[in-house]
Amino acid sequence: MKADRRTLLGLGAGAVAVAGAGLAAALDRADPLPPGTLGGADLARGHRLRDGGFPAPSRFEAVDLVIAGGGIAGLSAGWRLHDAGFPRFRLLELEDEVGGNARGGRNAVSAYPLGAHYLPVPNREAGAVRHLLRQLGILIGERDGVPVYDPEQLCADLQERLFWQGRWQEGLVPRTGLSPQDRADLAAFEQAMAAYSARVGSDGRPAFTVPIAYSSRDADLVALDAVDFASWLDRQGWRSPVLRAHVRYAMRDDYGTEPHEVSAWAGVHYFAGRRGWTVDGAGDNELTWPEGNARLARGLAGFFPDRIARGRIVHHVAQDGRAVLVDSFDVAAGTTVRTRARAAILAMPHFVAARVCPAVGTAGACSYAPWLVANATVDRLPGGRGVPLAWDNVSSTSNALGYVVATHQAPEAHPQGTVLTWYLPLSDMPPGIARRLLVERPAEDWKRMVRDDLLAMHPELEGAIRRIELWRWGHAMVRPTPGFLGRGAAHRPAPPLFLAHSDISGLSLFEEAHYQGVRAAEDAMALLGHRHESLL
Q1: Residue 250: its H or E element
Q2: How many C-beta atoms surround the C-beta of residue 62 within 10 A?
Q3: d(CA 140, CA 137)
Q4: Which residues are CB-neighbours of 105 under 8 A, at least 6 positions away?
Q5: Are residues 125 and 237 in the same domain?
Q6: What residue spans of 28-157 are helical by DSSP H?
Q7: What is the tens place of the pLDDT at every residue in 274-327?
Q8: Partners of 146 in the beta sheet?
Q9: pTM of the predicted model over 0.90
């Protein structure tokens, strides 16, 4: 493909930089690209929901409680109901697979993630998450009252490496070739984040923790939400380009958003909110699997598989006296089903919930980060000068976030190579433009970008990339822009309608989605008179 000016502009500034200065030349290459599919959230069903025109209900059913949405929040609500002995519910999911942005795929070489790919060791406050992990056989016991996790499911060494100044180094913060200002700013920043991590508020809560519902609400902490993270760093006088590059990586990694658009509260939370609670000092480790968090999604769904209805587009939810009417379009049958329930949990992003249910508030609407995820099957492991291959591999010369190795947890290398899961948040352009770019740019252009970025890091992979599977997320995660704290409360309707989504927290993290699902399930059970002991 000949690269003209319009083509390059259409890539976006950050996308052009993905493979560095050589991308324009690479676009002129006539090398054949690896085969591979283009997937993502079902655009046809999503647009059908947006455009409407569903037939009138022709099938009718009744149940005590409906969960609309099968992402982590909806699955967590269903798990909590099942765990509390409340079987009279039904979960309706638009897609053919549950899991939301925690879905995964598989090929002959390995399973691999399509989105979220790990769970940090949970904080002490995350009791409901630990209860789930215990049931899934991930948390295997206690020692002196402290959790013990299955070592085979904790991320093995080497966990992280960074391509920096021509070599791979351990960790993601550069430690060599730094100016005195770089060293001073990095040290001051790390000291400040450690202080925030150790701080306990006047209300007796940690300053920052996960789930964020357990974080302190001291006024000076909450005030951080009124300013963006880049401006907050400016106020501290920390302008080192090395520090700023690391902060940018972190904000795009967890939030898909540039530092100048991230709430300073969310920015500090990224660095100060994790204090994983486990034995042997492994609290800063991650739990991970070849398929990423699809392992957790499938585990949740496995508790109540007979109560999940896939391919059901929930398009209207309204109260009818003391009941709730939920209309959903059965894609396979081509008919609308009306479900009469005593309560409903809307486990869906706010922009969808507001569309299907007039009772959901529209104040403080959320915005969402678009992502491209690629799974590249290679017939040999990447190498490189410096430290050996890690689970998470990031290049300081790329605008992408690097890749994770799907087979990292395997005790022996797969004879057919491995799968590298590559991530690119389209954060350097307005989300609406980025979503259009995801849809309009040909798959071959995206594959070329992925291939060339991998080869820029690993020239030794020339000729070894066998397939590139692309996955588009138009609304991958909520963006924690300034003012996000408390924004979710404005969205909530009155019972018997309940919301359950990480949007309410404002951070698209597994623990937040799980907390919101459990909270909604417990609130619904309380309304319906089902006795239970709270996990929260």
Answers
A1: helix 241-255
A2: 12
A3: 6
A4: 111, 112, 113, 114, 291, 375, 469, 471
A5: yes
A6: 43-51, 72-83, 127-135
A7: 999 998 777 889 999 999 999 999 999 999 999 999 999 999 999 999 999 999
A8: 143
A9: yes
The amino acid that residue 446 corresponds to is W
How is residue 152 annotated by DSSP? Answer: G
3-state secondary structure of 197: helix
Q: Are strands 403-405 and 392-395 parallel, antiparallel or unpaired?
A: antiparallel
- Residue 324 · residue 497 · CB < 8 Å: yes
Longest dimension (CA), the chain: 72
Q: Are residues 214 and 339 in the same domain?
A: no
Which tokens hold the place of 14? Answer: 């950050």
- Name the nearest CA neighbour of 130 among 147, 155, 151, 144: 147
Q: Domain with 378 in it: what CATH number?
A: 3.90.660
Domain, as residue range, for 127: 119-154+160-284
The encoded tokens of residue 381 equal 């492991």
Please name the residue that has the structure tokens 């920043």: 189
E strand segments, 246-389: 286-287, 308-310, 312-320, 323-330, 335-346, 368-378
The residue among 63, 11, 34 whose CA lies nearest residue 337 is 63
Give a yes or no: residue 35 inside a domain: no
